[in-house]
Amino acid sequence: MRRYLWRRIGLGALTIVATTMLVHLALYLAPGDPIGYLLNGQPATPERIAALRAQYNLDEPFFTRYVSWITGVFQGDLGTSAAFNADVSTLIASRFQTTMYLVLISFVFISVFGLTLGILAGLHKGGIDSFSMATATILSSIPAFVGSFILINVFALQLGWFPAIGGGDGSLSSAISHMTLPAIALAFSAGAFVARTTRASIRVESASEHVVTATVRGIPRNKVVSRHIVRNALLPVISLGGLLFVGLIVSTAFVEQAFAINGIGGLLVVAARQQDFALVQAITLILVISFVVVNLAVDVLYWILDPRIRSEVA
Amino acid sequence: MSLVEIESFTLDVQVVEASARVIHEVSFKLEAGQSIGIVGESGSGKSLTLRAIAGLSPENSVVGGKISFQGEEVSAMDRERLMQYRSSQVAMIFQDPRSAINPVRKVGDFLTENVVTNLGWSKSDAKTKAIEVLTEVGISNPEKQLKAFPSELSGGMLQRVMIASNLLCQPDLLLADEPTTALDVTTQSSVMALIDQLRLSRGMAMIFVSHNLELATAVCDKILVMYAGRIVELLPAENLREKSRHPYTRALLDARPRLDGRQNRLNAIPGQPASGLEWTQGCTFAARCAFAQDICRSEVPVLRKIQESDVACHRADEIDWDVS
Ligand SMILES: Nc1ncnc2c1ncn2[C@@H]1O[C@H](COP(=O)(O)OP(=O)(O)O)[C@@H](O)[C@H]1O
Ligand SMILES: [Mg+2]
């Protein structure tokens, strides 16, 4: 286990370095000059420009720039945002928390909705199957912004059950009340995807020979389902869950806009548009770290749940 | 009363929109403690027949005729009775233990699941007994193996675990569907010997499905030869080599692998094996039979008694098999 884990962690670290380097390179090679934004309306005197270029290391070669950035990261310094003229760490910290709330709540909806529909559809043929899959298909075909619009109108404006906009004051209870609607809007298509994958996986597992064995040994159907079908069928769904979780962080941008939530997604859009090097770098770093951490969690979960992995690695 | 009595068993499966018959009028009896070997090329309906005895037919199929166990019709059992029948009276061994055992649960869970869930044994009793049967099937260090996962055991070991699991509940009937086909050659004979020895010492009856005639004659009292969903010959095992009469049985004997393990290509039966699905007017084997005449292509032969055998062949008493 330990060796396996260390190898995964090593791979994760490598992924982080490679990705941030790539983003650095992309920004370095990108057309346009960020100096216009950096000046921020101040007169473009040569001294001023030179000072800014020095402050942001704009004249250094690529590798030096990367090294000085990553050294800063290790010292907790993510740089200064040119667009917001503020410290990047402070800019990101609260927004990251907001986005995480949104993603986590949405993930709960996706799991509950996707697994329930998928398991029901997979175990039953005919009516229940068609109904569950039709529900999943309809919900998944609603674009997030349309879904947001409908949810805000019905549940926030008409019924008044939830606040229409904003991200709450940072506490968990206010996060839940503020994030429920956006989380649902975000959950539609991913939930349907989980439902379809779960259904397919349940079907495959139901037809497997070890299920015949259990049946022919007289194990009651409900136990065959829980011990031998669902338990095994969830394994492939777990790795999908990991991928979806990371995807959610990125796809929050739309929903954050619709519900006027100050999260990471919206921030990334602004940062990229304004060529805000420091901010883009920092957000990428956070996304990649989330990606690596989630994948690591999936790997560990697999290790615990699927003994086949253990004997493969050993 | 026989242990198992099968009368005019038929099976129709749903293919696309239509229903098609894959098993035609199969009848035979099995007495307590007796063993029957069902042989035939793949697709001849051996597995479907075997599974039907455990009340396990494909979802989209219709069973006809009568299958009874100790006089009780299997299809008439209600859910509870069927579970009881499966958990304590009949046991099944599959071809590939690696796919027949849930890969994510421990060997110990697999072994004791039936007796704990269905027969109400305590976990510690089940564990003690499990260690006993594992020892009996020749698995060393049984305590450790109980905690192992299937992926940590070899195919031969897993098949032994499968056999052991069936010993715990003391069934009257063992259904074995090609139990050694998926194993490597060196473990095949030891696993087969184990099944035979345990069956005899416990007085269990067995239906043994195989396409290995040699093996079937070694461990069975009777041999039942199936082709395209029909019984073509039923005879005492010791008569198979010298007194079998059906051209298909004879062809199987010629086509069997030689003792050195290499397939004798020259003697392989010409043509493709037919399945019960295929519709023919006369004998289904006629197309591949060297002795076929007009009557074989127009009339379906029925099983008839010739000395100790039941044979479904129009020409069974005419052909003079020169046994060498
Ligand atoms: N679930 C099923 N649905 C439809 N046809 C089936 C099904 N299972 C088996 N068959 C058909 O029934 C025939 C006999 O199958 P089987 O009993 O598995 O043969 P064997 O075990 O002798 O190789 C084959 O032609 C096969 O195609
Ligand atoms: Mg078969």
Automatic annotation (TrEMBL), chain A:
<feature type="transmembrane region" description="Helical">
    <location>
        <begin position="233"/>
        <end position="259"/>
    </location>
</feature>
<dbReference type="Pfam" id="PF00528">
    <property type="entry name" value="BPD_transp_1"/>
</dbReference>
<feature type="domain" description="ABC transmembrane type-1">
    <location>
        <begin position="96"/>
        <end position="298"/>
    </location>
</feature>
<feature type="transmembrane region" description="Helical">
    <location>
        <begin position="279"/>
        <end position="305"/>
    </location>
</feature>
<feature type="transmembrane region" description="Helical">
    <location>
        <begin position="135"/>
        <end position="156"/>
    </location>
</feature>
<keyword id="KW-1003">Cell membrane</keyword>
<feature type="transmembrane region" description="Helical">
    <location>
        <begin position="9"/>
        <end position="30"/>
    </location>
</feature>
<keyword id="KW-0472">Membrane</keyword>
<feature type="transmembrane region" description="Helical">
    <location>
        <begin position="176"/>
        <end position="195"/>
    </location>
</feature>
<keyword id="KW-0813">Transport</keyword>
<protein>
    <submittedName>
        <fullName>Unannotated protein</fullName>
    </submittedName>
</protein>
<dbReference type="GO" id="GO:0005886">
    <property type="term" value="C:plasma membrane"/>
</dbReference>
<keyword id="KW-1133">Transmembrane helix</keyword>
<dbReference type="InterPro" id="IPR035906">
    <property type="entry name" value="MetI-like_sf"/>
</dbReference>
<keyword id="KW-0812">Transmembrane</keyword>
<dbReference type="GO" id="GO:0055085">
    <property type="term" value="P:transmembrane transport"/>
</dbReference>
<feature type="transmembrane region" description="Helical">
    <location>
        <begin position="100"/>
        <end position="123"/>
    </location>
</feature>
<dbReference type="InterPro" id="IPR045621">
    <property type="entry name" value="BPD_transp_1_N"/>
</dbReference>
<dbReference type="Pfam" id="PF19300">
    <property type="entry name" value="BPD_transp_1_N"/>
</dbReference>
<dbReference type="InterPro" id="IPR000515">
    <property type="entry name" value="MetI-like"/>
</dbReference>
TrEMBL record, chain B:
<dbReference type="GO" id="GO:0005886">
    <property type="term" value="C:plasma membrane"/>
</dbReference>
<keyword id="KW-0472">Membrane</keyword>
<dbReference type="InterPro" id="IPR017871">
    <property type="entry name" value="ABC_transporter-like_CS"/>
</dbReference>
<feature type="domain" description="ABC transporter">
    <location>
        <begin position="4"/>
        <end position="253"/>
    </location>
</feature>
<keyword id="KW-1003">Cell membrane</keyword>
<keyword id="KW-0067">ATP-binding</keyword>
<dbReference type="GO" id="GO:0005524">
    <property type="term" value="F:ATP binding"/>
</dbReference>
<dbReference type="Pfam" id="PF00005">
    <property type="entry name" value="ABC_tran"/>
</dbReference>
<dbReference type="InterPro" id="IPR050388">
    <property type="entry name" value="ABC_Ni/Peptide_Import"/>
</dbReference>
<keyword id="KW-0997">Cell inner membrane</keyword>
<dbReference type="InterPro" id="IPR003593">
    <property type="entry name" value="AAA+_ATPase"/>
</dbReference>
<dbReference type="InterPro" id="IPR027417">
    <property type="entry name" value="P-loop_NTPase"/>
</dbReference>
<dbReference type="GO" id="GO:0015833">
    <property type="term" value="P:peptide transport"/>
</dbReference>
<protein>
    <submittedName>
        <fullName>Unannotated protein</fullName>
    </submittedName>
</protein>
<keyword id="KW-0813">Transport</keyword>
<dbReference type="GO" id="GO:0016887">
    <property type="term" value="F:ATP hydrolysis activity"/>
</dbReference>
<keyword id="KW-1278">Translocase</keyword>
<dbReference type="Pfam" id="PF08352">
    <property type="entry name" value="oligo_HPY"/>
</dbReference>
<dbReference type="InterPro" id="IPR003439">
    <property type="entry name" value="ABC_transporter-like_ATP-bd"/>
</dbReference>
<dbReference type="InterPro" id="IPR013563">
    <property type="entry name" value="Oligopep_ABC_C"/>
</dbReference>
<keyword id="KW-0547">Nucleotide-binding</keyword>
